[in-house]
Design goal:
The complex is a heterodimer of chains A (322) and B (435). Chain A is α/β, with parallel strands linked by helices and 322 residues long. Helix content of chain B is 29%, strand content 23%. Chain B is globular, with a radius of gyration of 21 Å. Classes of the chains: A alpha/beta (322), B alpha/beta (435).
Chain lengths: 322, 435
């Protein structure tokens, strides 16, 4: 069975039962995950058909928040490894009133899954759930806290294009305040030796963000000066009409990525976006679709490889326990 | 546990502490029925008189029982979290002889019937003396004033909307103005609601955890507004649960201007800071939130120098289902009746203030705010606590008499243990009998 694993070594280099966040991981652990994901990315799925690495394993995708992309990506990753996958989408509003998160966890534990992938609108909810179940838990995004697999797939994409993360300057632009993608990326990029800048209007910039080791900018042109990577974030509809920013057109004028603003970055700077994009809000279509600069499609592809690596490593830990 | 008061009881070999009569000396105390018959440094130094009950305090402190300005009883409406009986047992075990309940029960205490209900239930339980505030506004809705005059006559000890600050400045102005005719007190936890929609103190910890923050400014902005309204109306105002350095400064200046204002805090605000939230620990979710270390120190200093008049328990019982939730969905608050005294004694052990000054914050000052009496004077109600201020121990929530165990102080090392609590001459708690 081990022949299907790109890494033959039974040591995983990853010393945790769960993947709840990037904060607290060692550089070597992130590198191990990225190396394994890189191998999966280079592997031709057709050559490993059927893949039986996780045959007999059950992965439950438990999503308390709408998501097509992340859930599908996890589902495909698990299926490519031969696992059984069950998708559960829970309307959180109805959960709040009746069954508690803990009850949900207890019910799922009784079904004996091997891996739970959880997305939840409240920061810390995935950690709480991980304390109450007896299987590996992958954080698929919790509130404004962390989205570790997104940061890993972003890192893998950058590494493939630029060779390394060390020494690169990365600008993360948009709704930093509410973004779990931003937090996970800031932690990961710092750990791996990149310089991180964050760019946002003051109302979308969390206080004390500089304590994470980043430089904050309100002026996008200054923030983009000579960067290697431009990471755009999605702005939620409900935040763009007067509550945090006055209007879509004003946001696009000052914080939307267009050719002009991009010209301040390095000539070979890459453009990234975790999706789904709001074209004409945070990013201009012309820029988003520029095949020389935009790596947005590649990010999606790397997403599957990264999630395969995470599932592989976390289940390997279980084998060692047993 | 409560026994019929014997005719006379002598308490000998005590360290008597009473801020009201400026007393801190070895001595004894004699009760008759519900009252203190005699007290003094020289009393019973040659042994107690024959034929009456004698309690040897063996050098322990005998002081007026704590008067708690802020307790949530949960009865009526949420008896699975706490009842007047369980809160009463917890209070006397914590050395509290009188407490005042917030009106945020179900139904809300906003009419005469509510005040009478609490009084009747307290008489039935006969543990700590239980009083209640009535709400400032009907239904805690922040709009229409309650019958402040009638409610005062029926025994409401003050008026507060509890966990909900009165946001509308004109409503607050009228409450302060109208209440001044009845010499009662308006209590407010100052937190500007539009600035306090978050779930913990704003700052680095909130930013890292991805939790929405409550700025310390939310407190001082409303406090300053209220103090201007006090100046305008002459109403008596008490700010509940001061938690920030900025608020302390504002209170200090208000005192200097001679405004009729007082304030309190709870032990968590001079004991813990925001880092207690750690990894989304919901027991550390409070309202106001645990603040920065600078704020914590400022609160400790303000308790020591008297800028903060009183320390209350802010007893907020919650069952497991209200706390075992994602942080933002968990109810705020911690149980406080049984930890008020030992956590406050830490300030004495750090030499921030004297034991007598601490008794002022816990008993004398809060009684004065309520226009009640506290002290060991002759003829006063025999409401006092006997405690060992030094005995080291761990806080064990599992042993709380309170129905709820939501405390971030589990296994927290403290000094100080209540040995006996006496209300109206009756022993309502005795550590010897409990163990």
């Amino acid at each position: 069975m081990c022949s299907d694993r790109p890494l033959d070594d039974s040591k995983t280099g990853y010393a945790h039962r769960h993947l709840l966040g990037i904060e607290g991981l060692q550089r070597s652990e992130i590198a191990a995950l990225l190396d394994l994901a890189d191998d999966y990315a280079r592997q031709d799925p057709r050559a490993h058909r059927p893949n039986t690495l996780l045959s007999g394993y059950t992965v439950i995708n438990l999503f308390f928040e709408n998501s097509t992309r992340t859930r599908t990506s996890f589902e495909l990753a698990a299926k490519r490894l031969g696992a059984q996958v069950i998708n559960m989408s829970v309307a959180w509003s109805s959960i709040k009133k009746g069954e508690t998160l803990i009850d949900t966890a207890m019910t799922l534990t009784a079904m004996r899954p091997d891996v739970l992938v959880v997305r939840h609108p409240d920061s810390g909810a995935v950690k709480l759930l991980s304390e109450k179940v007896d299987c590996a838990v992958i954080n698929g995004g919790d509130g404004s806290h962390e989205h570790p697999t997104q940061a890993l797939l972003d890192a893998l994409t950058i590494r493939q294009r630029k060779g390394t993360l060390q020494g690169l300057t990365v600008a993360i632009c948009g709704d930093i305040l509410h973004s779990r993608v931003a937090r996970s990326n800031i932690h990961l990029l710092n750990i791996m030796g990149a310089q991180v800048r964050v760019i946002a209007p003051p109302t979308l910039m969390p206080s004390k963000i500089e304590r994470l080791g980043v430089t904050a900018f309100h002026d996008m042109k200054k923030g983009l000066q000579d960067v290697d990577i431009v990471m755009m974030l999605r702005l939620q509809t409900e935040r763009m009409q007067g509550s945090y920013v006055p209007s879509v057109r004003e946001y696009f004028r000052f914080y939307g990525l267009d050719r002009e603003k991009l010209s301040h970055a390095k000539p070979d700077a890459l453009i990234m976006h975790p999706g789904p994009m709001n074209r004409g809000v945070e990013i201009d279509t012309e820029v988003a679709d520029d095949i020389d600069r935009s790596v947005i499609r590649q990010q999606v592809e790397m997403g599957v490889a990264v999630r395969m690596a995470c599932l592989d490593i976390l289940t390997r830990g279980q084998e060692q326990e047993a | 546990m409560s026994v019929k008061a014997p005719e006379r009881t002598a308490y000998i070999n005590a360290r008597l502490i009473d801020p009201d009569s400026d007393l801190d000396s070895p001595g004894g105390l004699l009760t008759e029925g519900e009252e203190i018959l005699d007290v003094g440094a020289g009393l019973f130094t040659d042994g107690a008189p024959e034929g009456i009950a004698v309690i040897d305090c063996a050098g322990a402190v005998l002081a007026p029982g704590a008067v708690d300005l802020r307790t949530q009883l949960r009865e009526p409406g949420e008896e699975h979290k706490e009842t007047i009986a369980s809160a009463g047992r917890a209070a006397v075990a914590g050395g509290i002889t009188s407490l005042v309940a917030l009106p945020n029960t179900d139904p809300i205490v906003d009419d005469v019937a509510g005040v009478e209900f609490v009084a009747r239930r307290a008489r039935e339980e006969k543990l700590a003396k239980v009083y209640t505030y009535a709400s400032i506004t009907r239904g805690l809705e922040g709009q229409e004033l309650t019958e402040i005059g009638l409610l005062s006559e029926y025994g409401a000890r003050g008026f507060t909307d509890g966990l909900q600050p009165v946001a509308n400045a004109n409503v607050m102005r009228r409450a302060l103005s109208y209440s001044s005719a009845f010499d009662t007190v308006i209590l407010q936890m100052p937190q500007e609601p539009s600035l306090s929609t978050g779930v913990m103190n704003s700052g680095e910890v909130a930013m890292r955890l991805g939790l929405s923050g409550i700025s310390p400014l939310a407190e001082v902005i409303m406090l300053e507004r209220d103090l201007r309204l006090v100046e305008m109306t002459g109403g008596r105002y008490h700010a509940s649960l001061i938690s920030t350095a900025a608020s302390v400064e504002v209170m200090r200046r208000a005192r200097q201007r001679g405004l009729p204002v007082t304030c309190d805090t709870a032990p968590q605000y001079f004991t813990l800071n925001e880092s207690e939230v750690g990894d989304y620990r919901t027991f550390a979710r409070t309202m106001p939130p645990l603040r920065s270390e600078e704020d914590r120190q400022a609160i400790a200093e303000a308790v020591a120098d008297g800028t903060i008049d009183a320390i209350c328990s802010d007893h907020s019982p919650h069952d497991q289902d209200s706390k075992r939730l994602p942080f933002a969905l968990a109810e705020p608050g911690i149980v406080g009746l049984e930890t008020l005294l030992p956590l406050s004694l830490a300030l004495v052990h750090k030499d921030a203030l004297s034991l007598k000054e601490l008794i002022t914050r816990l008993a004398t000052a809060p009684a004065a705010i309520l226009k009640g009496q506290s002290g060991l004077g002759k003829g006063r109600a025999a409401d006092f606590v006997i405690f060992d201020p030094d005995r080291p121990r761990m806080i064990e929530p599992d042993r709380f008499r309170s129905k709820s165990k939501n405390s971030p102080f589990e296994n927290y090392a403290v000094q100080g243990e209540v040995l006996q609590t006496v209300v109206d001459g009756r022993t309502v708690y005795s550590a010897a009998e409990e163990s």
